[in-house]
Amino acid sequence: MEFLWNIPNVLFKYRVWSDTYHQSILTNNEVFLSSADLFNDPFDTTLPYRYKDQDLTPDNVFKKLYILGKEQWPDMPEEELHQRCYERQMSGAFDNGQYWKDEYEKFKADMNSRFGILSLTSKNDNLLMWSHYASSHYGFCVGLDKYALYEAIGGMISPVIYSTEFPTVGIFDDNVEGLTKILITKSTDWDYEDEYRITKLNGYRTAVSLPDRAITEIVLGYKMPEKHKQEVVDLAIKKFPHAKLFQSQMNLERFKLDMIPILTQHRVATAATV
Q1: Nearest alpha-carbon partner for 169 in 34, 25, 49, 263
Q2: Which residue, 174, 216, 176, 175, is CA-closest to 199?
Q3: 30-33 and 215-220 as β-strands: parallel, antiparallel, unpaired?
Q4: Beta strands 185-187 and 161-163: pairing type?
C-alpha cells in the first residue's frame, strides 16, 4: 500500500464515553461514515463543482457537453445531441458561471446521499480537539492503524486541504478526482485540526466494523471520571491487550498535554512472563 506513504501510521478519533454511540468505537469496533449534511461546518463538502475559468473555451465547453450528453442520452441521434450541446453552449451559462448555480442544490444533495466520510486527525494532544470533540477533556481518544482502516473501509484516505478559496477542477479531469478535491477542501479556519479524511463512494451513513488490531492506542481525557476510566481500561485489557494506554495530564509549565502511560496489573504480569 505504497499510496498511503503520506498518511501517518496512526490516525486519531476523539470520542465521548458517556455517549453509547461514541462508545461503539471500542465496544463494537465500529466507525461511522457520515454524510456532509451532518457536519457542523455548512461549507464542508458542499462547495460548488466549478471548472477552471481558463478551461471554459467554446471548443472545450462543447466537447464537455457532448461527453456528458452521450452518458445521459446514449441512444440520442447525433444530430439532435449536437444541437442540444450547441444550444446549451450558446446560452451564456458558461460565461457568467450560471451553469453551476443552476445545478448547485441538486449537486449538494447528490454528494450528501452518495459519499461516506470519516474524519480523523494526526494529533492525540490537540487542546481544541479535546475541547470540541471529547466533551472538554471528559472523553477519550482512540488511535487507529491506517492500514487496518483502509483494509476495512476502502475508499480514499487523504489529508484535508485548507484554503481561503473554493477549489476548481479541470473540465476534462476525472470526475472522482474532482469530487474528492471538493470533499477534502476546507477553510483555513479549521487547519488546527490537521484532519485526514476517508471518503467512500456509496458509503453514505454506513457503520464499518474494524478488526481488534486496528485499535493501537487509547488516551483518557484528563477530566474523565474515574468510573469511565476504569470501564475503558477494563475493556482495553480484555479486547486490545496490544494497544497503548495513556492518561492525558496537564503540563504545569506549558500549554500542552502530557501523555502518561498506563501500565495495568494485567500488563505487568504479562510482561513478567516474557
Answers
A1: 49
A2: 176
A3: unpaired
A4: parallel
pLDDT digits (tens, 9 = 90+) for 62-94: 887 788 788 888 888 988 888 888 888 788 777
- pTM over 0.85? The answer is no
Q: Which three cell numbers stand for residue 4?
A: 498511503
What are the structural domain ranges in the chain? 2-46+113-272, 53-96
- What b/e string do you get for 224-238 counting C-beta neighbours within 10 Å, with b at 16 or more? beeebbebbbeebbe
CA dihedral 12, 15, 20, 24 (to 10 degrees): 0
CA distances from 226 to 135, 190, 257 (A): 15, 32, 19
46 vs 250: CA distance, rounded Å = 37
Q: How many whole angstroms separate alpha carbon 152 and alpha carbon 160?
A: 21
